[in-house]
Amino acid sequence: MECRAGCAACCIVISISSPIPGMPHGKPAGVACVQLTENGKCRLFGRPERPAVCSALHASEEICGATDEEAYKILAELEKLTQPN
Question: Which residues lie across from 36 on neighbouring strands?
Fold first, then answer.
């Protein structure tokens, strides 16, 4: 499966605890990554500076669902489930 153009759910919904160029302390859930372009693409895609968590995420029906809205819901639930107590 390929990423849906403009979706960017993974660049907004999930938190990232590792540094990102432009976000040295990572990013909280629900905040768009500064590396997200206006058209929903990652400026770091394929580059070594891209956080490992981002590189490990791959578009799939389980993660992305059938629509952008489903992707946001699925990722929000995964974010909630993976938060430390």
Answer: 42
